[in-house]
Design brief:
This protein is mainly beta. Helix content is 7%, strand content 51%. The chain has three helices and 28 strands.
């Protein structure tokens, strides 16, 4: 055992010194030295289990009606993997029957490959034997997700993917398949467009126990964007599709179950901003456009009040009637205001009153705007 460990350490050193391998990825890249697995005992969820089965006639007699059956026993089911369930007529001495089976592994835990062979001797005696091959299916990746609900109905998904195997893996694809109500944009490239470079660099491999963070933006499709009540209640976002390759090029694939977010609570009325400038001049009026959506199941008759704050001053008539707003409907409301204080200022002071129920909804810290002085420091 000590000799084997020393030889393996020597081989690992040779791999690191091999100029045809990539620094930091010696175990992943083959280079000029083909590294075969040290043993077989584990396979990872999402990979394809392949096995070559050979039944050889070691005797000096011809046997007939040979039936080879390969089953895979998991913790929950027994699967038949044989390519053919028909018997072979005869098998001469020193001849063999070969078969290759494949199965995409979809369960973790202990798996047992059961190979059963039945045949008839030349004297008419029917014989039967079985062989068992046990292996473990392990979890290759640890996936954690976080959701961020934006005011514009956009949903940002952060996916943290960790390699929990003992070898590096090449991340071929990590994509998000959105649900029917959303379009998705991947935010994992430095520049936009098809030629955008990945934020993880050109070598997209993940070392053991390393973690990557992927970011996606989901926007409601146009036909659903205006239906506030529908989007409000949507919890199913989509599922992640992850494809990787191991150091011998074996491909694995995992799809998560449908990812669900906590539906945001907007209350009866939702107020959001459709348009606001990033930077405005001190004591100069600027325009914003507010979007008011009725998220309740009843019609509202709304009145708008605008309350000045220490730095924000509204221009226009306060207490004006906005009219009736039916359930799920919205209206766009242009407003004018100015700031008397420099710096990053919060827009606050809007009040909406439903005259039917005599209920007032207050909206403060709706957004922030940067207020700058257009003159020199002395003039400000």
């Amino acid at each position: 055992k000590t000799l084997l460990c020393q030889n393996w350490d020597l081989f690992a050193q040779l791999m690191r010194e091999d100029p045809s391998t990539i620094k930091g990825a010696e175990a992943l890249m083959l280079g000029e030295m083909l590294t075969l697995p040290q043993n077989f005992g584990n396979i990872f969820l999402g990979e394809t289990f392949s096995s070559y089965i050979s039944v050889h006639n070691d005797s000096n007699q011809v046997v007939k009606d040979i039936l080879v059956k390969a089953d895979l026993q998991t913790s929950s089911q027994r699967l038949n993997l044989s390519a053919s369930n028909s018997a072979v007529g005869e098998l001469k001495p020193e001849c063999c029957i070969d078969d290759v089976i494949h199965h995409e592994v979809k369960e973790i835990g202990t798996h047992i490959l059961v190979c059963a062979v039945s045949y008839t001797t030349q004297y008419g005696e029917k014989l039967y034997f079985r062989k068992f091959f046990k292996f473990q299916v392990l979890k290759p990746l640890d996936v954690k997700t976080k959701f961020y609900n934006a005011e514009t109905d956009e949903v940002f998904l952060e996916a943290q993917i960790q390699n929990i195997t003992t070898s590096a893996m090449f991340m071929e694809k990590v994509s998000l398949e959105p649900s029917m109500m959303y379009n998705v944009t991947e935010l994992n490239t430095v520049t936009s467009g098809e030629d955008g470079e990945s934020t993880f660099g050109k070598m997209s491999y993940l070392q053991p126990m390393d973690t990557r963070q992927y970011l996606y933006c989901l926007k409601p499709k146009p036909e659903y964007a205006e239906k506030a009540g529908v989007i409000k209640g949507v919890t199913v976002i989509g599922k992640l599709d992850i494809v990787w390759k191991t150091n011998l090029g074996e491909r694995g694939r995992l799809q998560t179950s449908q990812l669900q977010r906590m539906a945001p609570g907007y209350g009866d009325i939702r107020l959001s901003l459709e348009m606001i400038p990033d930077t405005v001049n001190l004591e100069e009026p600027f325009d914003i456009i507010c979007k008011i959506t009725n998220c309740s199941e009843r019609t509202m008759d709304l009145v708008l009040e605008m309350c000045n704050t220490r730095s924000i001053h509204w221009c226009g008539v306060s207490g004006r009637q906005l009219g009736k707003l039916s359930p799920g409907a919205f209206l766009s409301l242009p407003l004018i205001l100015l700031s008397s204080v420099q710096g990053l200022q919060s827009i606050s002071g809007l009040r909406l009153t439903d005259t039917f129920l005599k209920r007032t909804y207050e909206y403060d810290d709706i957004a922030q705007v940067c207020v700058v002085c257009p003159y020199t420091n002395n003039e400000c």
